[in-house]
Amino acid sequence: MAQYAVLIYERETPGGVADMPPEVMEAHRRVPERVRELGGRIVSAYATQPSATATSIRADVITDGPFIESKEALAGFFVIEADDLDQALAIGRVVPIMDGGVEVRPLIQE
């Protein structure tokens, strides 16, 4: 099966996850089950610390903060196995998003 990165972008809030409504948190907890229902498999999953904890490297310069400044920050990501991009996109659509979006990107496999 092909592997895809599912990147979750959300607008950051001062309280982080604590500001997330309970129904959205519950929807996140159900994502693995929904992925299985769609025939995919989560290989690994991670939530990220706030973007203020990021450190970026550009050539020889190291700076505090994320590599790309935007209204939304990378909130987390997971790697899935899916039959094809259509199935990966269907899986990406089950991720609950409050004010952001999801990017699905095929991974290079050898």
UniProtKB/TrEMBL annotation:
Pfam family, one: YCII
Domain of life: Bacteria
Coiled-coil zones: none
Gene3D superfamilies xrefs: Dimeric alpha+beta barrel
Family statement drawn from the similarity comment of this UniProt entry: Belongs to the YciI family.
Protein name per UniProt: YCII-related domain protein
